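# step 3/5: fold
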Amino acid sequence: MAASSPRARGDKRRLILDAAIRVFARQGFHACRVSDVADEAGVAYGLVYHYFDSKEHMLNTLFTERWQLMLDAIVAIDEGHDASAREKLREVASFIIDSYRHEPDLMKVIIVEVTRAANSFGREHLQKIDEAYALIARIVESGRHDGSFKADISAQFAAMCFYGAIEQLLTAWIFDLMPRTDEELERAKSLVVEAICGGLEATPESAPAIAR
């Protein structure tokens, strides 16, 4: 029998991961079994173990893939063009909210099962999570240096407030605590930036830009 091609193997792996997203989102990570993922994917139970050691391996893979996409997007936003810190933060908010719009089940899994799971997966991935805060803080720091943001609010604190506000919005949509129409999601991009940047922005009476 001919060996399967790399593309076929990749397709099977992706099929299993996509099934895992649906199962984890629908049943919750801790309540499901590997066999549930196999059934959802329509593959043999043993085939799942050919690609993944456990359901933990699947969740770790899903998180790492999605989180790296976000990190790459933040870097591209920060370095891609000469925009103000506020404009860059709006682009970051837009990317994260659009990620939820297009892949709500995956974002639900990432938030509920990883970033908010402080005693398990969240702790395991803390360094990677912190990278996002650091990249957002770098954008805020540029605003502190050019005087558009207040110098007495640390970039690290502002970054945590900014991302925390977005994550709380996503959580509210996930648990149906707020309407999530396309109009509401689009409106939220500006609202979260206004709420956070409104407090960060310097007034004429504020301290001058930080000396480099």
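# step 4/5: annotate
The domain at 7-52 is CATH 1.10.10.60 (Arc Repressor Mutant, subunit A).
# step 5/5: archive (pending)
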